Each structure stands twice: as C-alpha cells, then as structure tokens.
Amino acid sequence: MILYVSGATGGHIYPGIAMAQAFNESAHFIVSRPHPAKDILNAYQFSYQVIGFSIKALILFPIVIGKIMMVFLTHRPKLVMAMGGGICIPFAVVAWCLRVPVISFEQNAIPGRATRAIQWFSKKIITAFESAKHGIILKSKVRCLGNPMRINYPTNDRLPSEWNKIKKPTLLVVGGSQGAAKINAFIHTNRHQIMALGMNIIHLTGPRFLSEKDCISETVDDHTYVALPYLNNMMLAYEKASIVLCRSGATTLSEIHYQQIPSILVPFPFAMDDHQEINAIEFVKSHPNSCWIPESELSMVHIAEQIKTMNKKISHELAPDPVADMNIICELVKTYLK
C-alpha cells in the first residue's frame, strides 16, 4: 500500500494519480478538503479520505495526529508520497516516527512551505524545476526529474455535438481544476473577436463558471466556440489545440511541454509565494514558443498580437517521451518499497 497525501487541488492530486497509475501497488489518497478532490479522485476510482488541516489551527494538532495514526494502523502503508499542501506536514512527522519512508514532490519553481518543512523527514525530494533546489536546505536529497504526468485518463467525458467540428487553428483556454475567473470573463467578453482572427475556441471554465451538466456552444462564420466546465481527458483538448491560454500551474505546464503546444501563460497573481509567476518565468526560458503576461495586462490587444505571432511560429516537432523521467522516478521509488 502506498499512501498519497495531497492538497485538494488538481495541481497536487494529478501527479499523485500519475504515480499511482505507474505502480502495481494499492493506493489510498488523503486530501485536505473534499472539493475539487472528490470529483477528481472519483473519476479515477481511487479510494480516499478527507482529513482537514490548517497550519494556523495548531490547537487541533493533537486531534489531527490521532486521525493520522488511525490511517497508518488501518492501511499500514509501505511508503508515503507527499504531493504538497499543509496536510503533508503532520503525515511526514508521523511517518518518520513510525519509520515509514516519505518521498516529497515539489511541482513548482520554488518550494512551498510544506516541502520546506518536511525536507527533514523525507528520504528524497523530487522537483519539476531545477530552480526549486535553491529553496531547500538539504540539497543532497533533491532530484530534478520532472512532474509526473498522467498517461491514462477516464473515458466518461460528455462532449457536445459541435466538438467534431473543431479543427485547428484552435485556442484552448484552461484555468486549472477550479477555473480562472479573470480569464473566463475575458474569453466570454472577447470570444467573437478571437474567432474573427480565424480561431476556434475550446474553453474549459471550471465548475464555478458553468455547472457540471452545462455546455455553451456557438458558431460564427464557420468558427466554433465550445465552453465546458471540466474535461477529465485533457488529451482530447490538446489534440485540437494550436495555442493554449492558461494559468501557469505545474500540471498544465508539464502537459503543454509534453504536447509541445505554444502557450500564453497568465499566472494567478495571488498564488502562495507568487509561485505561478516564477513558474511562468522559468518555463518561458526553455520554451521559445511560449510567453507570459500579468493578469493585469490581459487585453485583446496583447492576446491578438500573441495569437498572430504564434500562428506563424507553430512547431510540429515530435513531443518528448514523458515516460523516460517516469521510469527514473519509478526506479527511485521502488528502492523504498523493498
């Protein structure tokens, strides 16, 4: 049994799912709150439970430790994968006391508070960006092996009839598992101007903008706009995308790196430690077909300019094989399963 401990958002959970898919070991997820974790994990049919934890609420620490002890007694894990989020801190402490190995994953360009705290209890720290190493004291534990990426996706997505009409060039708009309010508003307001540039649009809004069963679609001058609240199988969207307009969360960046799709990154300005802006800066350094703009400068003028530029530069190179890094990660993890 491998225990995956994670914050509740897709950025933490998706790499854990990728690892769980890679091993012939039973898996159980611990998440810090039910939404959106519940919908994500149910789609993949993984067992999970919610244990709420806040670093600020230290008065509840003994109660949380009691719940965690019950998890270890019930599931008797061989290994704990700490995927990020404050809930990883008490789990790493308990695992260390029980001599259960902990492997920590840091998806962002700078390490979060949880990664910095549990470095003392972790056997290894696997990062997606080389720059993350600078924020970790115990650098000998760090291996930059990339962000684990899902290869297998659920097949239960319900697509509108207009989906098959969508051909390239297409702008794919992704706000992450929870959506991005400012990007959603911008696309909703300016979609006709973007379509006038010769683009179809696939807009993944997140459930706060559209309910689970809703879908918006329209066609103007042979160009199609489709808005969906969520898509489990992101490969369906990436196959149609010429350019991606998105936040700079680590999972999204690893997916567009794999697909080799030009991207316009709009970092979430209120991310912890401003890590999304740092992710964007680091990503653009090694991806010349990508750019980033602050959310405050998100405008039709900027987007039109980037769309025209990127349409001229679109590369058709084969995507790199993501399994190479996964093989290295798997071999490293297996040393702690023996």
Shape: globular
Helix proportion of residues, in percent? 25-40%
Architecture per CATH nomenclature, i.e. the level-2 architecture of the largest domain: 3-Layer(aba) Sandwich
Instruction: Summarize the helix and strand pattern as letters.
Output: EHEHEHEHEHEEEHEEEHEHEHEHH
CATH topology of the largest domain: Rossmann fold
CATH class of the largest domain: Alpha Beta
Give an overview in words.
The protein has 338 residues and is an alpha/beta fold. The protein is 36% helix and 18% strand. The chain has two domains: 2-151 and 323-334, Rossmann fold (3-Layer(aba) Sandwich), CATH 3.40.50.2000; 161-313, Rossmann fold (3-Layer(aba) Sandwich). It has a seven-stranded parallel sheet, sandwiched between helices. A seven-stranded mixed sheet has the order 10-11-9-8-12-13-14, sandwiched between helices. The radius of gyration is 20 Å and the shape is globular. Mean pLDDT is 89; it is low at 315-324.
For this entry, give a set of tags.
globular; alpha/beta; seven-stranded parallel β-sheet; Rossmann fold; 11 helices; 14 strands; 2 domains; 18% strand; 338 residues; seven-stranded mixed β-sheet
In short:
With 338 residues, this protein is of the alpha/beta class. The chain is built from eleven helices and 14 strands.
